[in-house]
Amino acid sequence: MSEQIRAIGMSSGGLDSLLALALVKQQGIEVLAVHCATGFDSGEIRRGLGWLGENGTAIEDAAAQAAAGAGVPLQVIDVAGRDYNQMLQRPRHGYGKNCNPCIDCHALMLRRCAALMAEGGFHFIFTGDVLGQRPKSQRLHALRLIDREAGLENLVVRPLSARALPPTIPEQRGWIDRGRLLDISGRSRGRQIALARELGFARWVSPAGGCLLTDAHYSTRLRDLIDHAAEPLALGRADYALLLVGRHLRLDARVKFVVGRDARDNAALEKLGRGHWLLEATGHPGPTTLVQGEPGDDDLRRIAAITAGYGKGRAAARVTVQARRGDVQRSLEVTPVDPDNASALRISSRVSEAPARGASEPGRARVGELRVDEDR
Predict the structure, then answer these.
(1) How far apart are CA 63 and CA 36, in angstroms?
(2) Sign of CA dihedral 300, 306, 312, 316
(3) Do strands 247-250 and 156-157 pair parallel, antiparallel, or not at all (unpaired)?
(4) What is the pLDDT, as a whole number, of residue 314?
């Protein structure tokens, strides 16, 4: 009786991952889909904040959807933490266009999968990478570098592009039939979409929703957070989730505040506000404001005035703003400040690309509406 070949398929939850899982399973290989949760997945953060999709249901777990579509089990590995922060803040191989350390990140995730492979008796690892699709992490040199950094040189199969790449050890040993794999390359997704339809997949996750580290606006806020954090390596999911919420303004090196844009933001700030000052105007609908740091009395009054200026009471001579932190409450009567007069405080003062090797003072890009793209 021949040995059952078993493989781990790294899955982001996108179309390429879905197809890779399906292609390998078609060969009779036992597949385990593994999703590495970094804390920077836009869908993961939105679910955590309780934000709902347009149909009134929670935004779907893309990795679970892809695994279910391919008919394979899914295991989620949490890779967030100090090791990930260390890699993020000083990547050996630099950033993409924004704060995306794609080569170092992919290598870190592969190392975690390699440990799981050894523990679980799997034969090899495969990914949904497509040669040349992403210029930072999917060029031939980058793919080889990632495998080498992960200690998996010539061991990682990429089913969508395998026949456009040198044969790997799993292919050479016959664990997987190279002739049944594909030779896709480049940025077009036409062949993937055609294959998905051929395999009967009616739905898949858009490639535009993914890692927030590729987004210029999110990266601006992240750089500011890291630059001013007392313990950058101790930053966690709540810190990173907050960067997706509201308007971010910095009073000085000690104090930052986040002003909600709508009811959804306000609810998220309430959820993330434990241990922080939360401000709201009374008698006038308006934003919730979360204050980070230790503001003095004058700081708190200034933030209260800006909060009032963003609300429906902006034209009033005086507005009362309630400030609360835990059991402590204060009532502040302030003159609303026109938001235009607070624009200099917005975290958007400089525009530049991330440095090549993780400098401690990277430039900042303009903050605006968030849009997530693939790695650059």
Answers:
(1) 10
(2) positive
(3) unpaired
(4) 95
Q: Are strands 30-37 and 74-78 parallel, antiparallel or unpaired?
A: parallel
Query: What mean pLDDT, rounded, does the chain reach?
Result: 89
Going by C-alpha positions, the residue among 105, 127, 110 that lies closest to residue 31 is: 127
CB distance 196 to 212 below 8 Å? no
pLDDT at 365 over 90: no
What's the confidence (pLDDT) of residue 55?
A: 45
Question: φ, ψ for residue 279 (rounded to 5)?
Answer: -120, 140
Please state the domain extents for the chain. 6-198, 245-345
φ, ψ dihedrals at 357, nearest 5°: -135, 45
CB burial class (10 A; 0-12, 13-18, 19+) of residue 55?
exposed
CA dihedral 82, 38, 20, 376 (to 10 degrees): -100
Q: Are 160 and 17 in contact (CB under 8 A)?
A: no
pLDDT over 70, % of the chain: 89
Strand partners, 37: 78
Residue written as tokens 């993409």?
Answer: 96
Q: Which two tokens stand for residue 207?
A: 């490639």
pTM metric for this prediction: 0.86
Q: For 6-198, which CATH superfamily applies?
A: HUPs (3.40.50.620)
